[in-house]
Amino acid sequence: MAAAAHVLVFPFPVQGHINCMLHFATALVGAGVHVTFLHTEHNLRRLGGRASASSPAGSPRLRFLSIPDGLPDDHRRSVADLLELYKSLAAEAMGPYRALLTPSPTTGSRAADVGVDPTGGFPPVTCLVADGLLPWAFHAAEELGVPAIAFRTASACSLLLFELGELPFPAGGDLDESVRGVPGMESLLRRRDLPSLCRRPNETDDVDPALRVLVKLSAHSGKARALILNTTASLEQSALAHIAPRMRDLFAVGPLHAMSPAASCSSLLREDDGCTAWLDCQADRSVVYASLGSLATISRDQFTELFSGLVAAGYPFLWVLRPDMVEASQDAALQEAARGAGGSKARIVAWAPQRDVLRHCAEGCFLTHAGWNSTLEAVVEGVPTVCWPFSADQQINSRFVGAVWRTGLDMKDVCNRAVVEKTVREAMESAEIRRSAQALAQQVRRDVAVGGSSATEFDRLVKFIKKLSTSSAVLGQ
């Protein structure tokens, strides 16, 4: 009898990475695979009972375990601290992580003493799918005889950029100069479409340490047994074609949130449960939804310009104002002031059920940071977007939205209330943008449906994992 496939899914412990890798995990469970989803202890405590609620109904094949990240519980774990989190996790989690993969002398299975039944009725771990930002996890797994697959949560075009782009570019250069060295994007990308950490403030500044890490990690992905990307050929065909020869195997299986057999509750922040009722009271396509994601921080001046532009545009709007989003502000006072300034047309919340908001008939456009999860969620629902990117792959994603797919407008490098007002109005009123958004949504939905490119690739991936699992079980005997 063939060994049961049991995949350990290990995301980098921030919201955006957890989201799409949990959708992937639940899709695997739907395909009959056992999955252990690995959180940090800090994040699993934040999720509480909501983590177990993520398991597809009636399935015992998904469980949640945790390892330490080495940081105190009151540490902010903000976007400015990601490099510290990266280093601390690698230093502190290795022992407990290896224990999850190591055969137990008493049970014969790979398990860890993590405060629960070490096996939980699960078969041994036979395959690792780890975030591409965790190369040490790949090395440890392969050393222990567990085949490892890389999962990159960003767009394919950003991965290709980090591998081949001229990074960083010189200080003082023209931001509209074309970027060379990225095949298929020679006439598309400008320097302003690269991640902000590629910009040197002056000639004497060294390369940003985070940029060094990202470039190194992008090159490392090719060493895994395969690379999984949360995308589809309809969105990024050229980038995928240029990435594939650099990998041992490549699977484009997205958008995963549209393929998951059950909605997954992965939010580290409490969602406001009154959003839907408020939207129900608004006219169709009348609401602007504004959210800058789970990590972005902005200045008080930037907040004022964005907020004032939304008010001036004149549409009802739902604004996600995280408690830690605006620098040097008193959270409660700022939220109260925003509610007053927005009047009856504004609803201000700390966090929203974004997928539910985007699919609501009242949703007219999405003012977004253009993170890949948010970009894909808007694409699937056919919602026009206004992009104000912040970091990582967001600059290049926003360029694709505005210049390639033409499903929205790219507002990068501008934070002016008059521009915000004008851009939001155009996104809400442009019939051309809405037609493009809806046409792309229809194509992507075909991709994830039975027989579509992503669905076919996912089936191939499940077979690949089961084959690796059989080999892993033989080696582990």
Automatic annotation (TrEMBL):
One of its GO terms (molecular function) is quercetin 7-O-glucosyltransferase activity. Coiled coil: none annotated. Keywords: Glycosyltransferase, Transferase. Its EC number is 2.4.1.-. CDD domains: GT1_Gtf-like (cd03784). It is an enzyme of class 2 (transferase). Belongs to the UDP-glycosyltransferase family. This is Glycosyltransferase. The lineage of its organism: Eukaryota, Viridiplantae, Streptophyta, Embryophyta, Tracheophyta.
